[in-house]
Amino acid sequence: MPFSLQASVSFGLLAALVTSLGLLAVALRSEWSARQSGLFALSAGGMLISMSLLHILPEALASGTPAPSFVLGGFFAGLLLSFAMRTFFPEREGQARSEAFTPLLAVGVHSFFDGVIYSVSFAASFQSGVYASLGLILHEFAEGIIAFAILSRHGFKVREALVWAFIAAAATTPLGALVSGLFVSGLGTDTLVALYAVSAGLLVYVATGPMLAPLKEVSPMRAMGSLGAGVLFALAILALPIHEHGVLNAHDHGAEAAQH
């Protein structure tokens, strides 16, 4: 099994564990967990946008001439995906259990694509894979709470809600990393560089869009505190001596050799 696939699946499993912790928290203290979910999301947003702007995006832009176009494409792909999810999977109010299917499916699709980003990032560069994965993993805690809230609002009992929320929000992330990792491992260098640029644009959209949505619901002081905590955590991780290796580094070395 390629190292990049092992890493992406391992981080996908870690994401599933964090989501499970969110489910455990909401099962033990549902009201407190629901109130704090916005703060967790904002911290994740501050962490991910810091890592994206300080490392992932510059690395993607430096990987080749078409990269800016792919980054822009990834950003708008995230925007279009968000519009599509709201169009085809609208969340309706009510207690009918069947009505929980569409928003829960939306959570599952979102988590699956998180796993895809893990596999692409690790295939391109181990360092970028770590940064992208940690930024996304932090928001999994809140995602578990959200999935549970959707089900409980539509009449599911606590045990049923925990099981289905785990399947939709937790199990889909390592599944996405595994399925896409098997596919990504057979791609050429140029294709992986392009996919990495697309994923960088998608990460920027996720960090500045969905993860910052709770700004409308949280008081300014608490919101800035959560964002600041996420930024400081990101800076601490960026300072760690993580060894760089992967397709992007090989691509850079190949470009340097060609110049000489």
Largest sheet: none
Number of strand elements: 0
Distance between the termini: 34 Å
Number of domains: 1
Radius of gyration: 18 Å
Query: What coarse outline follows from CA principal-axis ratios?
Result: globular
Structural category is mainly alpha
**SSE string:** HHHHHHHHHH
Helix content: over 70%
Strand coverage percent: under 5%
Enumerate the spans where pLDDT stays under 50 for 5 or more consecutive residues.
250-260
Tally of individual helices: 10
Mean pLDDT: 76
What are the SSEs and their pairings?
Layout: H1 3-28, H2 30-61, H3 67-88, H4 101-124, H5 126-137, H6 140-153, H7 158-184, H8 189-208, H9 220-238, H10 247-259
Q: What are the salient characteristics of this protein?
A:
260 residues, mainly alpha, 10 helices, globular, disordered C terminus
Compact summary:
This protein is mainly α. It has 10 helices and no strands. The chain has one domain.
Descriptive report:
This protein is mostly helical and 260 residues long. It has one domain (3-259). The chain has helices spanning 3-28, 30-61, 67-88, 101-124, 126-137, 140-153, 158-184, 189-208, 220-238, 247-259. Helix 2 (30-61) packs across helix 9 (220-238). The longest helix has 32 residues, at 30-61. The two termini are 34 Å apart. 49% of the residues are buried.
